[in-house]
């Protein structure tokens, strides 16, 4: 079952269970996926859906930080609940040691030695690692390895 189908089925389950928070979050995700499909006139793969989920999670994290700063505890709880739901659909993130080891192997395989080759390493890293690590974390470790 694709990730998109899983989300649709979970919307139905949330409706049956009268879980409005989960239902609304999943509907927002489904709408974001559908919007991209309509705009680009193509069917999204699971990897594309993961990118949409990561973008949505990042938006929730940004909103969460702003609400905490403003002292809006009611909205903080709502954003945390949404973030938890979204993250349940994303693959388990890599820990730092696992990420660094994967990137070391990539750098060696690509025979990258200088910072000029960082773009080549980053492109391959995004392909290999996918949504299991944020680009900023990958970039930080690649810079450390190449310098």
Automatic annotation (TrEMBL):
- Gene3D superfamilies from the entry? 1.10.10.410, Uncharacterised protein YqeY/AIM41 PF09424, N-terminal domain
Q: Which GO terms describe its molecular function?
A: carbon-nitrogen ligase activity, with glutamine as amido-N-donor
Xref: InterPro entries: Asn/Gln_tRNA_amidoTrase-B-like, GatB_Yqey_C_2, YqeY/Aim41, YqeY/Aim41_N
Highest rank taxon of the organism: Bacteria
Q: Which Pfam families match?
A: YqeY (PF09424)
By what name is this protein known? GatB/YqeY domain-containing protein
The taxonomic lineage of its organism, from the top, reads:
Bacteria, Pseudomonadati, Campylobacterota, Epsilonproteobacteria, Campylobacterales
């Amino acid at each position: 079952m694709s990730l998109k189908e899983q989300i649709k089925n979970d919307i139905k389950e949330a409706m049956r269970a009268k879980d409005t928070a989960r239902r609304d979050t999943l509907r927002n995700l489904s709408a974001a996926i559908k919007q991209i499909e309509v705009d680009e006139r193509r069917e999204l793969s699971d990897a594309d859906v993961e990118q949409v989920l990561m973008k949505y999670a990042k938006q929730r994290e940004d909103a969460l930080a702003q609400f905490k700063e403003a002292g809006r505890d009611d909205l903080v709880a709502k954003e945390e609940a949404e973030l938890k739901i979204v993250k349940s659909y994303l693959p388990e993130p890599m820990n730092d040691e696992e990420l660094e080891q994967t990137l070391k192997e990539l750098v060696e395989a690509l025979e990258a030695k200088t910072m000029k080759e960082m773009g080549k390493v980053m492109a391959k890293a995004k392909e290999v690692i996918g949504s299991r690590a944020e680009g900023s974390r990958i970039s930080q470790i690649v810079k450390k390895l190449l310098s």
